[in-house]
């Protein structure tokens, strides 16, 4: 009964539509994040968007597109510095995480009073998603998913074995840059749902759980996306029924699913 | 079929002309020149830190050279990628990653190569075709190495480059590996360049040996190039053990090589 009531609200319909797309997008990208041991990337990009948001709030312009552009810029700089300095990506992500967030905090100090937009980005507000947000999520999401699907073999090859992929003719540098930008954009879209603090959970939890219970790469992708969809759908329903914060509930459902996968994982011979 | 450069030289597989490579101020490979004829097997030998892997990476176009040039069948690497197979020393990723043998091999398959070649190449390296569905991380060291070779052979390479192919496999696996190399040389006329520590095997198996210790210290047929003096110059005084183990029986020899490899 409560379920029918739940779906009668337009804000809940928008939340589900956004959640299902973001689950597919982030869990698919999460496979590359986990295999490349870049779980910090989502956190780093999410936190660095604070500067983009602060710029948007001070300039009085729309926060989501500004945050998307800022995140793409940060991804580009991480990639460029990786090529130039040969420092590990985690080190560079850590630098941008902290410096961009510090810039955001300083910029925010110029804006007096309560900032609802900022709070919604910090903790996520999937129930407050508006139709223009939904259009951004689906437009950017579909473009990234099409690019991922059409470059899947090359992307996984370069993620597993950079040298072999390069010898085989994969444009490693260009594909890595595009992957970073795709990850950054998807992370910013996910921030709207789960918030800066929790968004990386949707990148990591489904991919990590799926890795424990699958044996094939195809199965890994499919299971990761299905687990993410379940995580978001169940999280939203539970948060509605028990009146809990939606983002945190989604993440905890994911943590439960990961724990089950860890228990179900066949013991190694 | 892939595009082929008009400059292709079908007789000389690999030419290194005055090749030098530096990391910052440090010169790792200095002025190395050699030519490997098509259809031959060559070994690149030298102690740890002698620049072997660096030179292999430069040949593969993975790192830039500070001087000199490398030609593969007369053309730069970028024009010949379709014609090169590469077997790394080990997998770069966590072996527990969920991927089957067939899926892993398919990553390297070019558009012009039919999917059926995956099974054919596994058969070629002596693996049962039902191995395709097995998880890569569950294979033994010898099986994994053969899968890596089968993957490198998928697109019918003219030049096969192997980085320390005998490391991490047992004596039986080594014997099987060297049979595969012989088969490729005789049946397919594939040119093979491998990095190796196994002096005893190198002297039996290869047509040419390149001794490297930053500079090239010898090049030529093993019986002529691998003199006791050259080996001492390349590996240092302790390598004299090679001369004594050279004529021992096969099993003793492999055991000694393993020991010296880990010293």
Which SSEs are present, and which pair or pack?
The complex is a heterodimer of chains A (about 270) and B (about 260).
Chain A: H1 2-8, H2 10-35, H3 40-59, H4 63-85, H5 89-108, H6 116-123, H7 131-150, H8 152-160, H9 162-167, H10 172-198, H11 200-213, H12 217-241, H13 246-264
Helix pairs in contact in A: 2-7, 2-10, 2-11, 2-12, 3-4, 3-5, 3-10, 4-5, 4-10, 6-10, 7-10, 10-11, 10-13, 11-12, 11-13, 12-13
Chain B: E1 12-23, E2 26-37, E3 41-45, H1 52-59, E4 67-72, H2 77-80, E5 84-87, H3 101-107, H4 117-124, H5 141-153, E6 159-162, H6 171-188, E7 191-196, H7 199-205, E8 208-213, E9 215-220, H8 222-225, H9 228-235, H10 241-245, H11 250-262
Parallel strand pairs in B: 3-7, 3-8, 5-6, 6-7
Antiparallel strand pairs in B: 1-2, 1-4, 8-9
Structure in words:
The complex is a heterodimer of chains A (269) and B (263). Chain A is an all-alpha fold. Chain A is built from 13 helices and no strands. The model of chain A has no long low-confidence stretch (mean pLDDT 90). Chain B is of the alpha/beta class and 263 residues long. Helix content of chain B is 36%, strand content 23%. Chain B has eleven helices and nine strands. The longest helix of chain B is centred in the C-terminal third of the chain and has 18 residues. Chain B is globular and about 50 Å long. The interface between A and B is medium-sized, with 23 and 25 residues.
């Amino acid at each position: 009964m409560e379920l029918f009531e739940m779906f009668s609200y337009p804000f809940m319909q928008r939340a589900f539509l956004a959640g299902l797309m973001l689950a597919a997008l982030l869990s698919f990208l999460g496979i590359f994040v986990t295999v490349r041991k870049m779980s910090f990337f989502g956190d780093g990009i999410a936190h660095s968007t604070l500067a983009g948001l602060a710029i948007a709030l001070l300039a009085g312009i729309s926060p989501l597109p500004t945050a998307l552009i800022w995140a793409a810029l940060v991804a580009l700089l991480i990639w460029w510095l990786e090529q130039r300095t040969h420092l590990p990506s985690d080190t560079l992500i850590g630098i941008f995480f902290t410096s961009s967030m510090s810039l955001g905090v300083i910029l925010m100090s110029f804006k007096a009073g309560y900032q609802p937009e900022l709070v919604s980005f910090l903790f996520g507000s999937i129930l407050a998603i508006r139709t223009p947000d939904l259009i951004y999520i689906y437009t950017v999401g579909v473009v990234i998913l099409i690019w991922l699907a059409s470059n899947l073999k090359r992307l996984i090859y370069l993620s597993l074995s950079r040298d072999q992929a390069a010898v085989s003719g994969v444009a490693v540098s260009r594909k890595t840059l595009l992957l970073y930008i795709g990850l950054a954009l998807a992370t910013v879209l996910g921030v709207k749902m789960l918030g800066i603090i929790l968004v990386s959970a949707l990148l990591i939890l489904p991919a990590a759980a799926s890795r424990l219970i699958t044996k094939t790469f195809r199965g890994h992708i499919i299971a990761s996306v299905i687990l993410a969809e379940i995580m978001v759908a169940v999280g939203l329903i539970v948060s509605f029924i028990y009146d809990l914060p939606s983002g945190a509930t989604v993440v905890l459902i994911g943590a439960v699913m990961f724990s089950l996968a860890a228990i179900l994982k066949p013991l190694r011979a | 079929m892939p595009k082929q450069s008009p400059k292709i030289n079908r007789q000389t597989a690999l030419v290194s002309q005055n090749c030098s490579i530096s990391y910052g101020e440090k010169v790792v490979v200095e002025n190395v020149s050699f030519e490997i004829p098509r259809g031959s097997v060559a070994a690149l030998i030298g102690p740890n830190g002698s620049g072997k892997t660096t030179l292999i990476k430069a040949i593969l176009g993975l790192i830039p050279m500070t001087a000199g040039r490398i030609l593969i069948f007369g053309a730069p690497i970028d024009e010949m990628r379709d014609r090169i197979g590469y077997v790394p020393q080990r997998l770069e990723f966590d072996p527990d990653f969920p991927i089957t043998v067939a899926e892993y091999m398919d990553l390297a398959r070019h558009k012009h190569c039919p999917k059926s070649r995956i099974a054919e190449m596994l058969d070629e390296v002596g693996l049962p075709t039902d191995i395709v569905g097995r998880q890569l991380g569950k294979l033994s060291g010898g099986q994994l190495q053969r899968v890596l070779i089968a993957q490198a052979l998928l697109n019918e390479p003219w030049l096969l480059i192997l980085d320390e192919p005998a490391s991490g496999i047992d004596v039986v696996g080594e014997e099987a590996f060297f049979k595969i190399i012989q088969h490729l040389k005789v049946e397919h006329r594939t040119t093979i360049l491998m990095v190796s520590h196994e002096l005893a095997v190198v002297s039996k198996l290869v047509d040419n040996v390149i001794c490297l210790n930053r500079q090239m210290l010898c090049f030529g047929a093993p019986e002529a190039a691998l003199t006791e003096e050259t080996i001492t110059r390349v590996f240092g005084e302790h390598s004299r053990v090679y001369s004594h183990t050279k004529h021992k029986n096969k099993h003793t020899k492999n055991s000694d090589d393993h020991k010296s490899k880990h010293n």
